[in-house]
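Record minuted for completeness.

…
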Amino acid sequence: MLEKAGSKLYLAGEYAILKENSYAIVSYIEKYTYLYFYKNEEWEVTTSIKDKDGLIYKIIEYVERNFDISNKAKLKYESELYENDKKYGLGSSASLIVVTIKSILKLNNIVLDSMELFNVCIDFMIENNISGSFGDVACICYEKNILFKSSNRIDRNYEIKVLDVETNLDISAIWTKSPAKSSKLISKININNKFFEEFRMKSNDSVLKIYKAILVNDVDVVLENIDKLNDNLHDLEKNNEAAIHTDIIENMLSQYRYSKISGAGGGDFILSFSKSSIFNKLNVDLIY
């Protein structure tokens, strides 16, 4: 049997989404983690994916403890989210978590809808103290572009709105060929001071304007607020010690009129936005 989970790119709302009641737009990317699984007397794992934190066996233990699991399996993982052992930065850990939980449940005839799957995934992540806002997990569970509203981990009042529209907004994601260490960058940002709250409010304002503009295909408003988000992220960097915009990133951003980082910065992808004469489903073109 075969199961797969896609990947994601943050389009807007980076860093702000780390605090509750913040917004981000996350794009679903059709690059996959594949999991082939076959019934077996014991769990056996074969993978080309680096699992340095032992996530796979932690997930197996979690699912067995929380669901009626009678079937075990051989699990064989393959991934499109790496090149020569370099992560693209498309949410490989979130993709791994989602595909593993989906596969074990499928093997045992347990079917969950997108929101139920999201809740199981984040419950596992919270139990194992895995950092993040969970916007990536939501996007991958829903397999759609989404507007995501964050929550605290106790109340779990997350909101997910699917963004399924046609638009003449062109979005390209250009790979820097330099993998970023998001957790390291995030750890250098003070999210509990007055400056971050001002940053967060500005971010939320622009993200919601972009979301509403995409719904009615007002590309000019989208582009205007991409500029504002880019400026806001540069201000965040100036007030912290995180190297969000490296020389490589700054050079790449300068080549596009409307552009910004995706995710935590420091590497991975940058985003370019422009107006096209052609209408298509909202999607992101990856350029390597």
Observations:
- Residues 34 and 41 are 22 Å apart (CA to CA).
